[in-house]
Amino acid sequence: MSERIRWVDGWRGLVCFLMIGYHLFFDCIMFGWVPESATEWWPVFLLQRFIALSFIFLSGVSAHFTHSNLRRGLITLAAGAVVEAASYVVDAPIRYGVLQFLACAMVLYHFAGRYVERVPDKLAPWLWGVLYLVTRVISYTTIVEPRWLYWLGLRPHGFVSFDWVPFFPNIFMFFLGAWFGGRLLAAPEDSPLRRASAPKWLTWPGQRTMLIYLVHQPVLYGVCWLVSRCVG
């Protein structure tokens, strides 16, 4: 099924704008205009988590509003490969970033979504929420020897990635979004959940998230480079 829920597009559009601002902030750090210590500010951390979790949650919601999660996943996987390859060119390596994770989550949901949906409706949000929190603690406090486990959320010594969104705990946030998407799909057409709207300046980018994700960083970096050349 393919259907637009305008407030969902609006939320996604808002997150796109926040993402652009967040990446511009880090570009300013790379060009020496903002001190590197700024990355430790707590508002920066909260903004990063809100952006990442919003994209993951909304992708889960959209699992119920797409013609094919498999097709969507394969396209996202290809886009993630392009971004990862480009990240090594600019010496800011991305290993299992948000696109790689979302691609795997979409493909998994294509094959296993019907089993995930069998979790009782009243239990599902609590189950996915608790599993997310537990596996997040494990993931961010555990260092392992095997170097290939990083995609699962188990980092080896010296692991570096400028965008790391491991399978655990984030798959449970995706499942939480899918649970909410199912409730949204089942809601009556005239319910506030279905009829709530958002301004076009938010829904427009919210409907073009992939394109914006792919082009915004090269554009931002190019603008910063030009500015540095002009004032340098």
Written description of the protein model:
The radius of gyration is 19 Å and the shape is globular. It has one domain. It is mainly α and 232 residues long. The protein has a two-stranded parallel sheet. The longest helix has 25 residues. The mean pLDDT is 93. Helices cover 68% and strands 2% of the residues. It contains nine helices and two strands.
Describe what is shown at a glance.
With about 230 residues, the chain is mostly helical.
Flag low-confidence runs.
none
Largest sheet: 2 strands, parallel
DSSP strand tally: 2
What's the structural domain tally?
1
**Binned strand content:** under 5%
* Distance between the amino and carboxyl termini: 53 Å
Task: List its salient traits.
mainly alpha; single chain; two-stranded parallel sheet; 2 strands; 232 residues
Please give the structural blueprint.
Elements: H1 6-30, H2 42-62, H3 69-89, H4 98-116, H5 124-141, E1 143-144, E2 155-156, H6 167-186, H7 192-195, H8 200-206, H9 209-231
Parallel strand pairs: 1-2
Helix pairs in contact: 1-2, 1-8, 1-9, 2-4, 2-6, 3-4, 4-6, 5-6
